[in-house]
Amino acid sequence: MKAFACGDVVPGCEARWVCSSEDEILVNVASHAREDHGLAQVTDELEQAVRGAIVSVG
């Protein structure tokens, strides 16, 4: 299992995910970035920051 906390990349954001894969987290984060942060697309820099903050759990 993999976990990601948006607040690790965007201070103050409380959104968190625990998913079976890194790719599943990235899909959820892309949707969250659009809907809650108003980002039209996830940049390469943001994707790398997210990937760097994903941790293994369980």
Description:
By secondary structure, this protein is of the alpha+beta class. It starts with a strand and ends with a strand. The chain is globular. 45% of the residues lie in helices and 17% in strands. Strands 2-1-3 form a three-stranded antiparallel β-sheet, covered by helices on one side.
> Main beta sheet: strand number and arrangement?
3 strands, antiparallel
The helix tally amounts to 2
Order of helices and strands: EEHHE
Helix proportion range: 40-55%
Query: Care to count the β-strands?
Result: 3
Residue stretches low in confidence (pLDDT < 50, at least 5 long) are none
The whole-number mean of residue pLDDT values reads 96
Output the radius of gyration: 10 Å
Shape: globular
- First-last Cα distance: 6 Å
* Beta-strand percent range: 15-25%
What is the SS-derived class?
A: alpha+beta
Keywords:
three-stranded antiparallel beta sheet, alpha+beta, 58 residues, 2 helices
Q: What's the short version?
A:
With 58 residues, the protein is an alpha+beta fold. It has two helices and three strands, in the order E-E-H-H-E.
What are the SSEs and their pairings?
Elements: E1 2-5, E2 16-19, H1 22-37, H2 44-53, E3 55-56
